[in-house]
Specification:
148 residues, mainly alpha, 80% helix, 0% strand
Length: 148
């Protein structure tokens, strides 16, 4: 996929997110546009870094690092970045991303059919393991911080 296609998809996702933000959370799109632009900038920067840096890491690593660095308390502009990004609700952002993932995985249905019932068993173990692992980590963190 070339950069133009990637940018088109990102702009479409941003537009759908703004509509979802308005419908689901009653956030005026004009208020949320700066936050959406911040998020788009972070994503595009992360994608560029993933192409430029010779270490082969998934682009989500770079995107996450940029987002974390920009919102560290004390980082110049962190309060503004956080305030703008908070106007874009997470669930409004999930809807178009998950819809795109579903459409993209639809082209692999023939490959999934070849795997048969085994993929269901493996998927179940992966989901269960991920859930239990997340619950254990959450329990430890909550205990260590005195929340429970």
């Amino acid at each position: 996929m070339d950069w133009r296609d990637t940018l088109k998809i990102l702009v479409i996702v941003a537009a759908i997110t703004l509509v979802g933000n308005l419908i689901g959370f009653k956030v005026n799109p004009m208020e949320a546009i700066p936050g959406m632009l911040v998020l788009l900038g972070i994503v595009i920067s992360g994608l560029v870094l993933a192409k430029l840096i010779p270490v082969k890491l998934p682009s989500i690593v770079y995107i996450s690092l940029i987002g974390i660095i920009l919102t560290i308390p004390g980082f110049p502009g962190a309060a503004w970045f956080t305030a703008q990004a908070n106007k874009v609700q997470f669930l409004a952002l999930c809807t178009p991303v998950l819809a795109y993932a579903g459409i993209a995985s639809g082209k692999d249905l023939d490959d999934f059919k070849k795997l048969g019932w085994r993929i269901i068993v493996v998927s179940a173990f992966v989901f269960i393991g991920t859930f239990i692992g997340s619950a254990v980590i959450a329990q430890l963190v909550l205990k260590l911080t005195g929340q429970i």
